[in-house]
Amino acid sequence: METRILKINSPGDTENINAVAAVLKRGGVAVIPTETVYGLAANAFDTAAVENIFIAKGRPQDNPLIVHIAEFEALGELVREIPDSARKLAKEFWPGPLTMILPKSEKVPLAVTAGLDTVAVRMPSHPIAAAIIRASGLPLAAPSANLSGKPSPTNAKYVIEDLNGRVDAIADGGDCSAGVESTVISLAGGIPRILRPGVITVEQLRSVLGEVEIDKAVLAQPAKDERVISPGMKYKHYAPKAKITIINSSLERYIEYLNENGSPDTAALCFDGEERLMPIKSVTYGGADDSLGQAHRLFDALRELDEIGAQTAFARCPSSEGVGLAVYNRLLRAAAFRVVYLFDE
Ligand code: TXA
Ligand code: MG
């Protein structure tokens, strides 16, 4: 199919915003920018349109989608009831990079939730995303706009690489600020549980809700055949072609390791400013003490590893505190949970 690529610089660019909204209103599939990563959107109430998202992305049928809204009032028709916890979180973090999982209403098709009786909902803060949702008048189901298994795209160049010819339209709204996907929290029963970390941190959620659990799939590899609460956790994810290993060590030991294990086919995935110390080619992903900067850069850096032809990459280990938990969670999956621990003598 022919994909229309529409540059949108601001929510005031009504001509192109209305063009994208028109695609969505007639049941098409369109890519939109959000503050986290680009999303591959369609009318959440239209089963056929939602099925086309799965086809365009090559996504497994059992992995549910997030529904995007532009006002709090739109939540009511998506869920069975709105618990106090959801109201409090919305007041604090919406619009923004937080997804809440709640028992779904009858109106939400099972195609969106992959057969689950819960639905994931978020209100993006990106002004162009909000403008497109409002212009369409619809809740939009949207996974990240990458081909299934690839790193999520944080700019239109990588969306075009993955999806040109597979979707009706791509809205190019420039770079996404966060760079990793939203924090996902389940409020569907029991103690609130974080299923996917993001730039809204565990500490921020605890400060509003009190007790919050972190699902064990955030840092651990699910055992074969284990039932996971968030189906997305079980898939190979964010993986570039290069085989990545995380090296948990000091900078000095890391450089020694590269000297021993490097070759023309290998690359270092290091922090900003370290590249001049690397004995092999390198890609950087933010400052050593800057988790937000690492989140912003990580997925682009993974794609750049492919662009420089790396077969194997050795990654510096990020902090897993605060926003760092999201960075470490994504890098662990990109590395298929391979971590080497090296300690100083
Ligand atoms: O920032 C984001 O969240 C981006 C932008 C586009 O909004 N979207 C995104 O969607 O990352 P996706 O489909 O790539 O990731 C959605 C995650 C998956 O891990 C999925 O399994 C989980 O949310 N999820 C969705 N609905 C769920 C549900 N009802 N129960 C448990 N997990 C759910
Ligand atoms: Mg995704």
Molecular structure report:
It is a single chain. This protein is an alpha/beta fold. The protein has helices at residues 14-25, 47-57, 84-93, 110-113, 127-136, 156-163, 202-209, 251-261, 291-307, 324-334; strands at 4-7, 30-32, 39-43, 66-68, 98-103, 118-122, 140-141, 169-172, 183-186, 193-196, 213-214, 243-248, 266-270, 282-284, 312-316, 339-341. The chain has an eleven-stranded mixed β-sheet with strand order 1-8-2-3-7-4-6-5-9-10-11, sandwiched between helices. Helix 1 crosses helix 5 (127-136) and helix 9 runs parallel beside helix 10 (324-334). The longest helix is centred in the last third of the chain and has 17 residues, at 291-307. The relative contact order is 0.14. Bound molecules: threonylcarbamoyladenylate (TXA) and magnesium ion (MG).
